[in-house]
Amino acid sequence: MTQPPYVIDEMISAKTIAARIEDLAKEIETAFAGTEKLVVVGLLRGSFVFIADLVRELDLNVEVDFLEASSYGDAMESSREVRILKDLRGEINGRDVLVVEDIVDTGFTLHHVVGLLRSRKPKRLETIALLDKPSRREVDIKATWTGFQIPDEFVVGYGIDYAQRNRNLPFIGKVRFT
Ligand code: IMP
Ligand code: MG
């Protein structure tokens, strides 16, 4: 499928993201102080850049695992039906867990993943989303920590794609059709 022509306008610079992650990492360190080991769960694929930067700021023992939930396909709308495409490799029963998401939009994805992981009885489970679009919410869920609240714009970069493109941009930009 081909996309109509578009340009990308920078919305959040790489520097601003990095500064925010430093602050978030401090809050997470405080919240999980004394943990034996924190299981940091990245939701593929959009969180791969965020999780990479976040764990390198965390002064805690961490284990990194990934889970892939079904996404948009190439569309710009959520399918609202979430399927698990790739499950965790490790056990989380009795463990401290931090779920890392790129964007909370309708909320269906995070809601589903949190429900699934809670059923495995972690000791503690918290969530962090780099971006939040509260005006789009359809399911009542909020990440424990949010990097930035953004308006209802379709964004790309810093791991986030439009039809699998633009994940490699170092900043967050909004898609503008031309
Ligand atoms: P939700 O289930 O509607 O909350 O959707 C969350 C997922 O949709 C995110 O993890 C992203 O992968 C994707 N998504 C939501 N908004 C955007 C966007 O603006 N650009 C690219 N992907 C998005
Ligand atoms: Mg995603």
Automatic annotation (TrEMBL):
Primary location recorded for the protein, binned into one broad class: cytoplasm
Reaction(s) catalysed by this chain's protein: IMP + diphosphate = hypoxanthine + 5-phospho-alpha-D-ribose 1-diphosphate; GMP + diphosphate = guanine + 5-phospho-alpha-D-ribose 1-diphosphate
Keyword tags: Cytoplasm, Glycosyltransferase, Magnesium, Metal-binding, Nucleotide-binding, Purine salvage, Transferase
Keyword Transcription regulation among UniProt keywords: no
Protein name, per record: Hypoxanthine phosphoribosyltransferase
Localization per record: Cytoplasm
Biological process terms in GO annotation: GMP salvage; guanine salvage; hypoxanthine metabolic process; IMP salvage; purine ribonucleoside salvage
Homology family: Belongs to the purine/pyrimidine phosphoribosyltransferase family.
Domain Phosphoribosyltransferase residues, every copy: 15-162
EC number assigned by the record: 2.4.2.8
Keyword Nucleotide-binding among UniProt keywords: yes
NCBIfam families, per the entry: HGPRTase
GO MF annotation list: guanine phosphoribosyltransferase activity; hypoxanthine phosphoribosyltransferase activity; magnesium ion binding; nucleotide binding
Pathway: Purine metabolism; IMP biosynthesis via salvage pathway; IMP from hypoxanthine: step 1/1
Listed GO CC annotations: cytosol
Listed cofactors: Mg(2+)
Membrane-traversing stretches: none
Organism: Tranquillimonas alkanivorans
